[in-house]
Design a protein that fits this description.
Length: 345
């Protein structure tokens, strides 16, 4: 399984600050109970219905959770292609496009969750892609829809458009200045919320924050996208302003922080996931501040390679905690040194 998903290319607009953009739509099959109440036969029927769409989804490969190892499932979560909830479901599946930009989760909270994940700030492009796959499937499969309430979903808060859009941001300057809490608290008035790196119920790691819409009904998809873009652009502008102030008043300290992290990541012998995320965050800060010239895509790859599931897939073996710390240090150090020498990653 290739660990390099599309969003990890790191070449989208505002990629020094905006790590990725995701748009997903929740859909359910008409006449079939929601995943929380359906039986095993019905669950398998939903998967079979998706598998039968290979003519429509010709660039996609369906993988059943029951046929994947725990490491395989974990790696898909770490690449943001499936949720942790789906990874824990034996009656779930996922269809993934060849470039890993589109993933359709099957039998998660809803029968289908069609998502597009792209690098940088690409909300309109992600929405257009997710919508295209939605249209292709709806032409073949009747979806649960109500004239008044819109698309019906297992959780009422997702009903209506069924759309959730989110943007992953790296905000070290706002965190360092102590302003991030105020900024993130203010977005609620725009119908948005901040989540951790793996979505709802997870913590912010490596100074990464996921901003997404809360409201899915009463507004057209285009307006939801437009509102989210406007708020994200304001946050990006504030991050840039605080970064400029930080480098103007404390450039030597910022440079020291960046190069210390580069030195550690280049030479460390044992490295935990959280330590790796912290070091990579500092190096991303150096890229955003024009202190060092490294590809944001490289740093996205290092961030994902630091995760235990992807790391074990890369090593093609099962590793205990200490073995993972050794391999993580070895692989990330090698990749970073190659990049610093101008090699290809």
């Amino acid at each position: 399984m290739d660990y390099k998903a599309k969003w990890m290319e790191g070449n989208g607009p505002e990629s020094a600050i905006v790590v990725s953009t995701r748009v997903r739509v929740a859909r359910n099959l008409a006449g079939v109970p929601f995943p929380g109440t359906m039986n095993e036969i019905q669950a398998q029927g939903v998967i079979a219905t998706v598998e039968a769409q290979q003519g429509v989804l010709e660039d996609m490969h369906v993988q059943r959770m029951a046929e994947l190892s725990q490491v395989d499932r974990l790696a898909l979560v770490e690449k943001h292609l499936i949720s942790l909830d789906l990874a824990n479901k034996s009656d779930g599946a996922v269809a993934i496009s060849s470039d890993q930009a589109v993933a359709i989760m099957v039998n998660e909270e809803d029968h289908l969750r069609i998502q597009c994940l792209l690098p940088g700030l690409q909300l309109e492009q992600a929405w257009e892609t997710a919508s295209r796959y939605d249209d292709l499937l709806e032409a073949e499969i009747p979806f649960a829809f109500h004239e008044e309430y819109g698309y019906l979903t297992a959780c009422p808060t997702n009903a209506g458009t069924g759309m959730r859009a989110s943007v992953m941001l790296h905000l070290p300057a706002l965190v360092g200045s102590g302003h991030v809490g105020k900024v993130l608290a203010a977005i609620g008035q725009f119908g948005l919320m901040a989540r951790g790196i793996y979505g709802e119920g997870t913590q912010a790691v490596g100074q990464m924050f996921q901003i997404s819409n809360q409201v899915t009904s009463g507004l057209p998809e285009e307006e939801i996208i437009r509102n989210l873009r406007g708020v994200v652009e304001q946050i990006v502008a504030q991050e840039k302003a605080h970064l400029k102030k930080m480098t103007a008043t404390s450039r030597l300290q910022v440079e020291d922080r960046v190069f210390r992290s580069i030195g550690l990541l280049s030479n460390v012998r044992l490295l935990s996931t959280n330590e790796a995320m912290s070091l990579i965050s500092d190096i991303r800060l150096g890229v955003a501040a024009d202190i060092i010239d490294l590809s944001p895509g490289l740093l996205c790859q290092l961030m994902v390679l630091a995760q235990p599931g992807v790391l074990q897939k890369e090593c093609t073996e099962s590793l205990d905690s200490q073995q993972r710390d050794v391999k993580r240090a070895e692989i990330l150090s090698k990749r970073l040194k190659q990049a610093l020498r101008g090699g290809n990653i």
